[in-house]
């Protein structure tokens, strides 16, 4: 070693080191994730430099493959991670590892951005965005498990080899490696951790393999552990959707969802605003909750630049999308994301909104362009989740409502209709959407509540389960039109001109002259009606009968029970009655 000197960490760095070593990560294993991600960034930067192909750029050891090598040494109790990436000069070492809030990646981007804007060279920027670094906490995490760290690095453009050594307290040492030193370093960076005794368990190859598989399985450069390649699965989500074969998707789906089926739907997209995100989401061909199995856990994992942040994250999709499987990657997220940090939670909330919106628009697209698949495969399997969303998720309720499908009294072929279709068939005077709850289609068709609506030639949605009934009550309006149960007492159908209807119900219209009511459905005289009402009240008692009055709504049924304000209550009681049966 020559030109040896001791330098002090920047004051904030000392503080940060303290935090990192003592509390930042509860899961100490993540130091490896941080170092692997740095190595991967360094390789990516080198690849970018090479592909930018400027003529005066000479990369040393250009035949060395771009890879990450991890070795364990039980004798020294050390763990070494080496990459063949860009490496660092002595100045860069001081700047990148001696100070914080000056993330090397951040500077790299600034420089690159200046370069590309000068050269009107757009492609570079895209690639560069892939390596934007965040707040520089990552590297220091190695001091959680090591009491001494040695970084040996040689810039890809050539130049002296620098060695940086520290125990992670106040100072670090910097030296140049002498030309005749036998530990000479090739291009790139080698980081050697001398492990604290309580972490000697990390010297096991199986243990390291397990950590790598968990966090770094999709890193795009080969990771070799004691000479064997660990990461074998491609990060399919980061590929260009145009270039991915269906088989590749299916294999990846089976891998991440631990599934045996073929996915019903694949959604692969990338967005740049309001935040950078790459997502590969799957709808499985079936879900397990319907077999009475327990509630599913979330199925989408969160990555940042191919490195795992959180497996099966509960926060990146709403609860009602728990059947979705896959991977979401956002380079805007720090690896050590924390729910306690408001800016992190804000990012996650933003991400969730982007993903939910995209997912729902994919469903809308399926409903429109592949309606058979939507109605026969997706909807029967997953409609409950959409309905759960309608009841729980105020923000997406209008979008979800568009995705619902119903039988009605008019679609005799049992094709399901959407609320939009229903609205497009409204009668001109109609400003409400009507629905009727009955156990089956047959019961609905025969319901006395339906009579007057049929006569007025109105379409009525049929709902068959207490849950659907509940959904309708929750939704309450669609596109400004109230959803009204036909059981409600104050529905006034008199404005619907029944003559418009084709004249198939002849005897009804004939009856019109037998009373004062214009449509003639009232077959009792006024005094007779009062008698009947009195009889109902006397027989059933005042607390069961709110009011009883003659109605023009009925055609062939003598009487119906209608709802007043306690309607929702009744519906809920019905749900309790039937849901656990
Ligand atoms: P971040 O990766 O978020 O920038 P880190 O603390 O993980 O923060 O790393 C700080 C900086 O140190 C990096 O931005 C990079 O410039 C430099 N660095 C770390 N590891 C390597 C490496 N293996 N090769 C080259 N540079 C590295
Ligand atoms: Mg890092």
From TrEMBL:
Q: Which GO terms describe its molecular function?
A: ATP binding; ATP hydrolysis activity; ATP-dependent protein folding chaperone; unfolded protein binding
Q: What is this protein called?
A: Hsp90 domain containing protein
Signal peptide feature range:
none
Q: Which residues of the full protein are shown?
A: 96 to 676 of 773
Family the UniProt entry places it in:
Belongs to the heat shock protein 90 family.
Q: In which organism is this protein found?
A: Nitzschia inconspicua
Q: Which UniProt keywords apply?
A: ATP-binding, Chaperone, Nucleotide-binding
Q: Does the keyword ATP-binding apply?
A: yes
Keyword ATP-binding in the entry? The reply is yes
**Which region ranges are annotated with the description Disordered?**
495-523
Q: Where is the composition biased (Acidic residues)?
A: 502-513
């Amino acid at each position: 070693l020559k030109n040896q000197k001791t330098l002090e960490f920047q004051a904030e760095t000392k503080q940060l080191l303290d935090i990192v070593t003592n509390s930042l990560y509860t899961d100490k294993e993540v130091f490896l994730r941080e170092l692997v991600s740095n190595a991967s960034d360094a390789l990516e930067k080198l690849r970018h430099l090479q592909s930018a192909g400027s003529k005066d750029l000479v990369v040393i050891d250009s035949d060395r493959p771009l890879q990450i090598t991890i070795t364990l040494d039980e004798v020294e109790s050390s763990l070494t991670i080496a990459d063949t990436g860009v490496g660092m000069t002595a100045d860069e070492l001081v700047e990148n590892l001696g100070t914080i809030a000056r993330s090397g990646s951040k500077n790299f981007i600034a420089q690159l951005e200046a370069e590309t804007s000068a050269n009107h060279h757009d492609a570079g920027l895209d690639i560069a965005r892939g390596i934007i670094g965040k707040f520089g906490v990552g590297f220091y995490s190695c001091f959680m498990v090591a009491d001494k760290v040695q970084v040996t690095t040689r810039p890809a453009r050539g130049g002296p080899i620098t060695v940086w050594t520290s125990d992670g307290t106040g100072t670090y040492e910097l030296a140049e490696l002498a030309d005749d030193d036998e530990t000479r370093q090739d291009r790139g960076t080698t980081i050697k951790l001398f492990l604290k005794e309580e972490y000697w368990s990390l010297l096991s190859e199986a243990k390291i393999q397990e950590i790598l598989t968990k966090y770094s399985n999709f890193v795009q450069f080969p990771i070799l552990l004691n000479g064997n390649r660990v990461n074998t699965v491609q990060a399919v989500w980061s590929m260009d959707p145009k270039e991915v074969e269906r088989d590749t998707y299916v294999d990846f789906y089976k891998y991440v969802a631990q599934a045996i089926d073929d996915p019903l739907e694949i959604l692969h997209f990338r967005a740049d605003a309001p935040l950078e995100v790459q997502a590969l989401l799957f709808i499985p061909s079936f879900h397990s909750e319907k077999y009475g199995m327990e509630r599913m856990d979330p199925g989408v994992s969160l990555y940042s630049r191919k490195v795992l942040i959180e497996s099966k994250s509960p926060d990146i999709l709403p609860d009602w999308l728990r059947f979705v499987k896959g991977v979401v990657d956002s380079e805007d997220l720090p690896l050590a994301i924390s729910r306690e940090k408001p800016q992190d939670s804000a990012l996650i909330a933003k991400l969730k909104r982007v993903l939910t919106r995209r997912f729902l628009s994919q469903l809308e697209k399926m409903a429109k362009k592949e309606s058979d698949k939507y109605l026969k495969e997706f909807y029967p399997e997953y409609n409950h989740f959409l309905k759960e969303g309608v009841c729980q998720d105020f923000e997406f309720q209008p979008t979800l409502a568009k995705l619902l499908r119903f039988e009605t009294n008019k679609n005799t072929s049992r094709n399901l209709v959407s609320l939009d279709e229903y609205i497009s068939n409204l009668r001109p005077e109609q400003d409400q959407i009507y629905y009727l709850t009955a156990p089956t289609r047959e019961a609905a068709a025969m319901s006395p509540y339906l009579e007057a609506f049929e006569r007025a030639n109105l379409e009525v949605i049929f709902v068959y389960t207490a849950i659907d009934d509940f959904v309708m009550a929750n939704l309450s309006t669609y596109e400004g039109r109230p959803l009204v149960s036909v059981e409600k007492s104050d529905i006034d159908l008199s404005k619907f001109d029944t003559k418009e209807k084709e004249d198939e119900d002849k005897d009804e219209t004939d009856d019109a002259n037998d009373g004062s009511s214009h449509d003639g459905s009232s077959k009792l005289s006024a005094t007779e009606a009062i008698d009947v009402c009195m009889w109902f009240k006397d027989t059933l008692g005042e607390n069961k009968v709110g009011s009883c009055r003659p109605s023009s709504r009925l055609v062939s049924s003598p009487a119906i029970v209608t709802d007043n304000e306690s309607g929702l209550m009744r519906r809920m009681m019905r749900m309790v009655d039937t849901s656990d049966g």
